[in-house]
Amino acid sequence: MRRPLTPAALRAWRSEPMCTFTTSNYHKNRHLLEREGHRFRSQCDSELIAVYIADKLSAGLSLEEALHQSQKDLDGVYTYIVCTENEIGVAKDELAAKPLVVMEDDNVVALASEEVAIRQVFKDEITSWDPYEGEVMVWSR
Asked: Cα–Cα distances in Å, from 84 out to 27, 54, 62, 75, 91?
């Protein structure tokens, strides 16, 4: 689902990289990416997803297409956020066991693993939700 992300929302968006990820086919995917010439600096699932998405984007897929493809290729329990120069994308696996809370209005998109984190930033009453299992969301400028 593609949503517009206004410049005001980008300026107001406060985040740190977020990835809650446990994959059962990490080594298989890492090996495939290494065969394509990618190098890794850690044994971290977060690095794997970053390299995976960058590989898909460099192959010409849109961020939304890359996120959907990751749901087919990555076996595990995950929720992750990916940012490009013009987009923010979120993907959840089919079990949706890893948390993600979204708060969105006309000016702001806030993403966190717990609602209490969003409420620390926005003191007024907010409406937030947890995306459904298997959901992909992309916000763009």
From this structure: 25, 9, 11, 24, 14
Q: Burial, 16: exposed, middle or buried (Cβ in 10 Å; 0-12, 13-18, 19+)?
A: exposed
Structure tokens at 80: 């992750």
Asked if 19 and 80 count as a contact pair (C-beta separation under 8 A), the reply is yes
Can you identify the CATH homologous superfamily of domain 2-140?
Answer: Aminohydrolase, N-terminal nucleophile (Ntn) domain (3.60.20.10)
- pLDDT above 70 covers a percentage of the chain that reads 85
Instruction: Give domain limits for the chain.
Output: 2-140
- At 88-123, the pLDDT tens digits run 999 999 988 888 999 998 888 999 989 999 999 988
Return the biggest CA–CA distance within the chain. 50
pTM of the model: 0.81
- Label residue 111 exposed, middle or buried (CB < 10 Å: 0-12, 13-18, 19+): buried
Give the count of beta carbons closer than 10 Å to the beta carbon of residue 40. 13
Q: How far apart are CA 5 and CA 81, in angstroms?
A: 15
